[in-house]
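INTERNAL TRANSFER SHEET
From: sequence group
To: structure group
Subject: Mitochondrial uncoupling protein 5-like

Please process the attached sequence and return the structure record in the designated field. Keep the field labels unchanged so the import script can parse them.
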Amino acid sequence: MGLKGFVEGGIASIVAGASTHPLDLIKVRMQLQGEPHLPNPSLQVYRPVLAGNVSISQAVSQSRVGPVSIGVRIVQSEGVPALFSGVSATILRQTLYSTTRMGLYDILKNKWTDTETGNLPLTSKIVAGLIAGGVGAAVGNPADVAMVRMQADGRLPIDQRRNYKSVIDALGQMTKQEGVGSLWRGSALTVNRAMIVTASQLATYDQVKEMIIEKGVMGDGIGTHVTASFAAGFVAAVASNPIDVIKTRVMNMKVGPGAEPPYAGALDCALKTVRAEGPMALYKGFIPTISRQGPFTVVLFVTLEQVRKLLKDF
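Return from structure group:
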């Protein structure tokens, strides 16, 4: 029963992750906007200004660029395949992180469910999600770092790009150039985010699904699954976005030999981000986050329910 939960969760997570990857890439690019230590030529416009009698060009960074604009610019400057940059890392991440969290959550949920009533309190679901998310994130952090870097690479100046060929190449280069420890860069943030996402996403889905069925609004069908999925995606996006912004920036920072890193840690990154860009900077990329979390969560749980039906006799 335990192994079956891992298989079901893994299949559903890989399908959901691969199909919504372009939205995740746009979210990452938006979250990296405004970093003071890194120019972003793809998100700059040039306008002439007069200095005396001399006309010069001055780069003026746009303060806000929407997800549609970023998506269009990625296609224009890097081509359509760029929308799937890092998809191999996404698949590996889902294989390690999501398979672990979905399977472990299923085990804990079954273990803690009252055998007589078949009920599991919301608090127990949240605790199961926190534990499953934390363990899954620790396992999948190397793939998460590789995914963020591969997704963000196109926004760097050409001479600064890492140009990873695949997730395996990314992990190999990171280990060789920055040490094994770089594979777990930002792991504390990854674990915290995963605990929040898993607890809010899985617990909300189960709770809303149970409420819909118990109150007789709908039966245990695709309508219920989609409705519960959207609710779970929204709650997870609101709860996790600030940590996700900080995690993305810490993982993506480039540290040269002997140079001081842009951020000393998660707290330093959060403080510098808020000071330089304001508190709402922690919700950068929220539109693509919710745009991605919605479809991702729907695909995840609808696929999961269908896989469960297919494997119910095994």
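Handover comment: The radius of gyration is 21 Å. Residues 117 and 186 are 42 Å apart (CA to CA).
Transfer complete.
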